[in-house]
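Researcher: I need the complex structure. Ligand is magnesium ion. Inputs:
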Amino acid sequence: MRSILHLDLDTFFVSVERLRNTAFCGKPLIIGGVSHNEPGYQNRGVVSSCSYEARRFGVHAAMPIKLARKLCPEAIFLRGDFDTYQKYSKLVTEVIADQAPIFEKASIDEFYLDLTGMDRYFGCQKWSGELQQKVSKETGLFASYGLSINKLIAKMGTTESKPNGALCIAAGTEKAFIAPLAVRKIPQVGQMTERKLRQMGVQTIKVLREIPPRLLEREFGKNGISLWKKANAIDDRPVVPYRERKTIGSEKTFQIDTIDVSFLRSELLKMLKALTFELRNEKKLAATVTVKIRYADFNTFSKQKKITHTADDHLLKPVVLHLFDQLYERRQRIRMIGIQFGKLVHGHPQMNLFDDQAKSLRLLKEMDGIRKRFGKGII
Ligand SMILES: [Mg+2]
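Model: Output:
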């Protein structure tokens, strides 16, 4: 029997905004769309996150901002700052990585951990509670968790326990736990499926479970079988370990070995262009560049240079060409060339160095504020 923990941060974007500005605490706060000082802000975008105070007015995620504004005109509307959310997400990830060897980052604010076998030593429930406390102590963010025999039931447990809650669904009780819940509580059951099920007279998971899988397959195709499995608490998906990419690179082996330096240079620059695009796309910056060459006799050489964090072609171009010139000294035919960027960090390529420093200083200040409020003194 497996022990799977699902940990999910409560109103993540909202909570981050409240750490940055305590004036937002206790008030209806809605993240999404376009900010007040931009023209046309009223009618664009959807709600990406909202506080419980706003939910009381019927506002929910994915609702058009325009409607949210109508339901809750006194709410504070923020555009959201994804880069900052990423940074806080990374902080939480670090706390979890510190404690758990096997975990999966399922989204910016939710994690699965495989605790199978741990019960013999600590007790999964006690351990999970301690992790939940550690997360809020070290990041200032609250999380809820569900603990059960698979990912599905653990996640549904988390949802039922929110906010700042915990639910352990012991082996053998998972079917009883989900039976009374509405079908829309099953992850991946959207409005369409819910409506169709309602038309079939199905509102609770208990009723859904009693429908023959053949019938569900006829109505929903392949999704019907998966729906039936979920209603029966069946889910054998594994926890897939999370690994952040620390390098990015590409290599090119030529059909015919070449000695044409200008061709080699232009191939390197093509490669560079594609790689920096990939970096910027993933919002990452590199701190090392490595150029590699392989001669026709398979002897391979590489040279690395440290750089200031960047994803800018114009800054990287001379570095790459210089490394190549240093490497290519034998004047023999070349079989393969490659570039690799290393020590990747999350960062915004458009910002210049000064802005970047100002921003990280601000973040450090925020962190210090959190540590002061949630530091050792509190527990
Ligand atoms: Mg969440």
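Model: Summary of the prediction. Residues 353-374 form the longest helix (22 residues).
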